[in-house]
Design brief:
It is a single chain. With 68 residues, the protein is mainly α. The chain has two helices and no strands. It has one domain. The chain has helices spanning 3-29, 36-67. The protein is elongated. The relative contact order is 0.16. The chain crosses the membrane at residues 7-24, 36-58. Keywords: Membrane, Transmembrane, Transmembrane helix.
Length: 68
């Protein structure tokens, strides 16, 4: 597996889990119970978005390097 692919996957997983954890913390401070399905949804949705953002960022960096 390419290092670019690994960084995209790692960035998506870490970003998604951190975001979902923060959102679960906000729910807990509001007095709501922990909901596993909401945690999974937040982690997947935000993780996929972060993966796409990381992919586009790496693609732009590669284009800049190839121009120089």
């Amino acid at each position: 597996m390419k290092t670019e692919t690994k960084s995209i996957i790692k960035g998506g997983i870490v970003g998604g889990v951190v975001y979902a954890g923060i959102m679960a913390g906000f729910d807990y401070t509001d007095g709501q119970d922990f909901r596993i399905w909401r945690f999974i949804f937040n982690a997947l949705f935000f993780g996929i978005c972060m993966g796409f953002i990381t992919r586009n960022s790496l693609k732009k960096q590669a284009e800049k390097r190839s121009k120089n």
